[in-house]
Amino acid sequence: MKWNVWGHSLEETEAFLAEGGFPRFRAKQLHDYLYKRYIYDFSQMTQFPAAMRSWLEEHAQMNRPEVIRRQRSGDGDTTKLLLRLSDGSLIETVCMHHDYGNSICVSTQVGCAMGCIFCASTRHGMKRNLLPGEMLAQIYAFRELYDIPVHSIVLMGSGEPLQNYDNVLAFLRLCHNPDCLNLSYRSMTLSTCGIVPAIYRLADEGLPITLAISLHAPNDEIRNRILPASRRYPIGTLIDAARQYFRVTGRRVTFEYILIDGINAGTEHAEELCRLVGNMACHFNLIPINGTEHIQLYPPSRQQTDRFCKILEKHGKSVTVRRQMGDEIQAACGQLKRRYLDDSSK
């Protein structure tokens, strides 16, 4: 079976080319073709001798996902792509066009096993983990189609990144590599539902990435209802892991909090949330829930959201309310894929 040259570290590429007797510096040239010049045809890699191009044709392949659908919001702030992988699986990725730059939301799994009640990507469970190259290809799909620079990446697409730990870490290191995206670790955010042992492991990696924890509730009773997978790790142990992440990395943790009317958005919930985190250095990202066709959950009023926000601020917490982007193009996790599959079955 041919080796897929896309999405590997420089060391892995060097080892592969060594099998053909080629010097190490050729790996750096190959990465330049792939990640800087967007040349994916071995015959066009004219820096290589003819014998090397022939060897690559015989022993290597360029296996990258196919873009099968793309959508852009009317205001131009959000672009979403639906990609088909080599095994036929479908994944989504989103680019959010901010004033400060382009932020790309990356999926880490095909589907998701977490069972969050507000998320479409979890409806059919988790099929498999994505490889580092399949994550990297999501970013390059935008770079090639729209010729845009990448300011930051957020691992907030379909899947739980810390369930795919080794592949995710390899992907982040690829993005940081000067021969690839040359992206600062501080421009990377990993969002997790709270796999506690993996948070401790991530803290010890020494990578100054931002950790965003999907908290969504001030206590276990509500959290287990919103996020069934959280039953494995009580909320107190999750807060302890977040404290440790800050102590080891010096990076303030972000708590993502979906606001759902009648469930977790009351003033009493805000007060309880402040007691839960205490004096911990953290940031709260409040997210009024997006309405979708498969759930009967609704956001609180603007007044309720403001009251919730002010209580957190009164207790000295840093707070933002996420601006909704991409509703009209179904940019929430799993929605475009679900619509595509529904259309295909008609």
How would you explain this protein's 3D organization?
The chain has 346 residues and is an alpha/beta fold. It folds into 2 domains: 3-61, DNA polymerase, domain 1; 66-344, Aldolase class I (TIM Barrel, Alpha-Beta Barrel). The protein is built from 11 helices and 14 strands. The strands form 3 sheets. Strands 3-4-5-6-9-10-11-12-13-14 form a 10-stranded mixed β-sheet, sandwiched between helices. Strands 1-2 form a two-stranded parallel sheet. Strand 12 (253-259), helix 9 and strand 13 (282-288) form a beta-alpha-beta unit. Helix 6 (196-203) packs parallel to helix 8 (235-249). The longest helix has 15 residues, at 132-146.
Q: Which geometry do the CA atoms define? A: elongated
Report the count of strand segments. Answer: 14
Which CATH top level class of the largest domain fits? Alpha Beta
Helix-strand string: EHHHEEEEEEEHEHEHEHHEHEHEH
Secondary structure category: alpha/beta
